[in-house]
Amino acid sequence: MAGSSLLALIDDIATLLDDISAMTGVAARKTAVAAKKTAGVLGDDLALNAEQVTGVRADRELPVVWAVFKGSVVNKSIIVPCALLLSAFLPWLITPLLMLGGAFLCYEGFEKVAHKMLHSRDEDEAEHQQRLDAVRNPEVDMVEFEQQRIRGAIRTDAILSAEIIVIALGTVQDSPMGIQVAVLTAIAVLMTLGVYGLVAAIVKLDDAGLHLLQQKHGAGQTLGRLILGLAPKLMKTLSVLGTAAMFLVGGGILVHGLPPLAVALHHLEELVAGVAGLAGLMGMAFNGVVGLIAGGIIVGAQSLFKRVLAGRG
User: Fold this and answer.
1) Nearest to 35 by CA among 237, 193, 261
2) DSSP assignment, residue 64?
3) Tens of pLDDT, residues 24-66
4) Is the dihedral of CA 168, 169, 172, 178 positive or negative?
5) Would you call 87 exposed, middle or buried from its count of C-beta atoms within 10 A (0-12, 13-18, 19+)?
6) Residue 247: how many other CB atoms lie within 10 Å
7) pLDDT band for position 73 (50/70/90)?
8) Per-domain boundaries in the chain
9) 200-239: pLDDT as tens digits
10) Is residue 46 a contact partner of residue 131, using CB atoms and an 8 Å limit?
11) Is residue 179 a contact partner of residue 23, using CB atoms and an 8 Å limit?
12) How far apart are CA 233 and CA 229, in angstroms?
């Protein structure tokens, strides 16, 4: 695309400007569609990365977020070119990879739900207390502790970044290479800045609340108490929304990739076509149910496989 634009420049400046204008408009629309498709992964990405700095000392939270941000940039600088090469030379692999990504989202979502159902609140609080004890223990090497958290967060980011880029690529795989480059680059930049900007803001909410609580004015103290009360609820809300979005996005990918499911959804939407807005809700519900069932099947198969291996051992 860049080469053809250069030739167009030599041939006719006016034509080039028109082409650039048109391409910018198409790329913007494609980016908006891709961003909508990847929003489910973004919600989970945000919750997971905010959780990664739990247990890190307050004065080290932002340096840890910055370190993970740099790792995320490296991840995407590798993943985006690989995705574009895949689109150029092995385009038939995009749909299978997209399906695998959707299945993985469903698996990840169901695993979270299963963990929540199978583990009591006391167990979760005990794990959280262990993290806090590690921070307070002077014998713990905090540099190594931080590095472990950073490495874990970067690994998580690599998986979620690959999901985001593959989903975005699936929305533009039939577009010219120039559009693909523009959309994937825009998605990578926007998602990275958006996720880690919000993570930085979220992890410092408690500090902002404490600062306001120390103010002499009653309004500042009231706002500080409000922020301190809302901060943990915000994290829980992000986690719940992220998990729900994983079922919706992952299930939606599977539905559109499996013709029988797509046909079933089409028939259901036709049944409620006369009711305003109900078709969209029906589609979301159907995708969510498919995602939940698919995740349950994968988690169940994994559990069975582990039992078989343990029995043989």
Assistant:
1) 193
2) H
3) 444 455 555 555 555 445 445 544 455 555 445 555 667 777 8
4) positive
5) buried
6) 26
7) very high
8) 2-243
9) 777 777 777 777 777 777 777 788 788 777 877 777 777 7
10) no
11) yes
12) 7
Residue linked to tokens 């306001």: 212
Q: Which two tokens stand for residue 123?
A: 């167990």
Output the six-digit token pair for 1: 């695309």
Q: Please tell me the predicted confidence (pLDDT) of residue 157.
A: 77
Q: What is the DSSP letter of 93?
A: G
Residue with tokens 């502790």: 145
Q: Are 77 and 185 in contact (CB under 8 A)?
A: no
- Specify the residue for token string 């990879």: 97
State if pTM tops 0.85.
no
Check residue 56 and report its DSSP letter: S
Does residue 141 have a pLDDT over 80?
no
Read off the tokens for 58.
């307050």
CB atoms within 10 A of CB 273: 11
Q: Which of 165, 194, 169, 189 is nearest to 179 (CA)?
A: 169
Instruction: State the amino acid at position 26 in one-letter form.
Output: V
